[in-house]
Amino acid sequence: MVFSSLLFLFLYLPLTLLLYYLVPRRCKNIFLFLISLVFYGWGEPLFVLLMLGSILVNYFHTYFIYKYKDNRALGKRLVISSVIINLALLGFFKYAGFITESLKIVLPFLNIPVISVPLPIGISFYTFQTMSCVIDVYRGDAPAKKNFITFGTYVVLFPQLIAGPIVRYKDVADQLDSRRENMEQFADGVKLFMVGLGKKILIANQMGLMWDSIRATGQENGILGSWAGIIAYSLQIYFDFSGYSDMAIGLGRMLGFEFLKNFNYPYISKTITEFWRRWHISLSTWFREYVYIPLGGNRKGVPRQIINLLIVWGCTGFWHGASLNFLLWGLYFGVLLIIEKFVLMRFLDKLPAFVRHIYALFLICIGWVIFYFEDFGEMMSFLGSLFNPSAGLISGDALQILISYLPLLAVAIAASTPLASNIYQKVRTWKYIWLPEAGLCLAGLMLCTSSLVSQSYNPFIYFRF
Fold first, then answer.
1. Is it the case that residue 29 has pLDDT exceeding 60?
2. Could you give the count of Cα atoms lying within 13 Å of 398 in the half-sphere of its Cβ?
3. H helices within 255-352, ranges in order?
4. Is 280 designated active site?
5. In the predicted model, what is the mean pLDDT of the chain?
6. What pLDDT does 2 receive?
7. CB-side neighbour CA atoms (13 Å) of 224
8. In Å, what is the CA distance from 13 to each residue of 16, 122, 167, 185, 186?
9. Which of 90, 279, 340, 373 is the most buried (most CB within 10 A)?
10. Which comes out higher in pLDDT, residue 145 or 250?
11. pLDDT given for residue 3 in this prediction
12. How many CB atoms lie within 10 A of CB 13?
């Protein structure tokens, strides 16, 4: 992973950008399509064929839906066909092992073999994108692309191919044909890419090491030690995923695309409802537009609305992985959102802001415990350690770890708020602001490179989803 990251930073990306700006405009999509396939095939060459098959199937579905757009009955059948094929592919590669293993436990007398297949990187993201394209064309939100390469470019565009954000077709349909790159947009893209890289390498990786160190000491960390651990994991997953999203959006800008923001400082939220308006925005937007609203949303009475919310949040949890803890995690937040909407919100609005903030962060951290532990015994044991006074306030090992990471922990907490962004907005109009910007970008690149070279710890959490 480290070697691949360095190859990407210092070989693939510079060559891609150089060639992209050298090729004629009419060839830019062809170049992006091919170079994105190279990017994907770098890690998984065999699964390039799967992706090409997915592109081909969905291209013809959108083509015929648009060609016969006046025939709504045919269009509806084509949408259903596309959804079934896409979900079947996703279900086989992502959930076949889980389903067959569960059936073997429930029905041991049938001797059902457990299917084990490798999970193609990014399949959850590009499957949702292809489905959004078919549905958007059917709804008339965007025209189908007659050019297969243009359609393929949308699906395989390398900045967001592996871990999102999920780019809805209607948001970039025009950009695929008529984007115009400029230096200001390119410079903004470079800055955002460096912010994302710094989030990932300099903060997320360190918080991950802190979390691993505290977990390694067992269940005797004490209450504060356990809370320090899950706070570190909460920061790791935020900076890991938001860092990748920032890099993807920044790379998109370098290529002339504008992707929508995927994170908006979720840890400043004062309710769970607000948290999910700020966290993984592209995923929650996708489920709202393509699942919740088609199910009836809030238009068919309160009981149906509650059922719709539970379906959406069950799907949201299960989308993250073939494990019951992900399903439980999704339903946990679904239930909290329902309780807030119909009961708690009127009381929360009357509380002081800091109390609401503590309430939200407490529930979010509990959610991350459910998200992290696939083993329910380990999950319950760790949840117990957050409240068990018999283990003491904090163990000696946990205290030593906390002290050693305290400066980085403080930086991470500050960086999870809009503080730095607010300061930057006040000074960004200065005449020579480009000088410190360039210096910070260069310093950030050097620090990230040094960190990548000196450490082998560089996981991307969302790569496995």
1. yes
2. 24
3. 272-278, 281-287, 293-295, 302-319, 324-339, 345-348
4. no
5. 88
6. 47
7. 12
8. 5, 19, 21, 17, 14
9. 279
10. 250
11. 43
12. 17
The domains of the chain are located at: 25-179, 184-464
- 416: number of Cβ within 10 Å: 20
* 94: its two tokens: 């992502």
pTM of the predicted protein model = 0.91
Annotated catalytic residue, options 61, 280, 320, 357: 320
Q: Read out DSSP for 87-123?
A: HHHHHHHHHHHHHHHHHHHH-GGG-PPPP--PPPTTH
Average pLDDT over residues 35-63: 88
Amino acid at 356: R
CA atoms within 13 A of residue 122's CA, in its CB half-sphere: 29
Closest CA to 101 of 120, 121, 115, 87: 115
d(CA 25, CA 135): 29
Provide the pLDDT for residue 327: 93
Q: Compute the residue count for the chain.
A: 465
The 3-class SS string of 242-280 reads HHHHHHHHHHHHHCCCCCCCCCCCHHHCCCHHHHHHHCC
Q: What is the dihedral angle through the alpha carbons of 187, 163, 24, 172, rounded to the nearest 10 degrees?
A: -90
Tell me which of 377 and 453 has the higher pLDDT: 377
Confidence at residue 444, expressed as pLDDT on a 0 to 100 scale: 87
> CA of 368: how far to CAs of 120, 322, 328, 378, 393, in Å?
25, 17, 11, 13, 21
Contact yes or no for 192/155 (Cβ under 8 A): no
How confident is the model at residue 57, as a pLDDT?
93
Q: Amino acid identity of 45?
A: P
Which pLDDT score, from 0 to 100, does residue 198 have?
93
Over range 291-308, report the average pLDDT.
90
List for the chain the helix, strand, coil content (%; round to 5). Answer: 75, 0, 25
For residue 363, which of 389, 339, 333 has the smallest C-alpha distance? 333
Kindly state the average pLDDT of the residues 254-264. Answer: 91
Distance CA 156, CA 295 (A): 29
